[in-house]
Amino acid sequence: MIRVELHERVDAAATGAAGGHQVTGTLTVADDGTHRFDGDASSFPTNLHVPVLDEMTGRFRQVTFQDDPATWARNLHALLRTGYLVPVITHDDLPAGTGSDEATDTTEENH
Fold it and tell me: Which pairs with CB-CB distance under 8 Å and at least 24 residues apart come from 67-72?
């Protein structure tokens, strides 16, 4: 399972509060590929592909959300690089690029 929060930049001048980020939506993808959106699902650009390095060929391949939701979620940071929308992985049973089966959980209650 992987859980990704999408954080949106908050403009301090517009809100009168301190700037920073707020969660606009959360995507949870189960090991079987089923998924659930909480919050603003439209903030996730599921119509776009993400580049993923194929370790066998050394080339990038394009992965769509429909083809492989978990891989897409793990690599969403490669697509969203502006700072206005920031994907934050809060839980991942198989962190990208580690080859490890150890789970990570970065939610507040686990710190």
Answer: 68/33, 69/29, 69/33, 69/35, 70/2, 70/29, 70/31, 70/33, 72/46
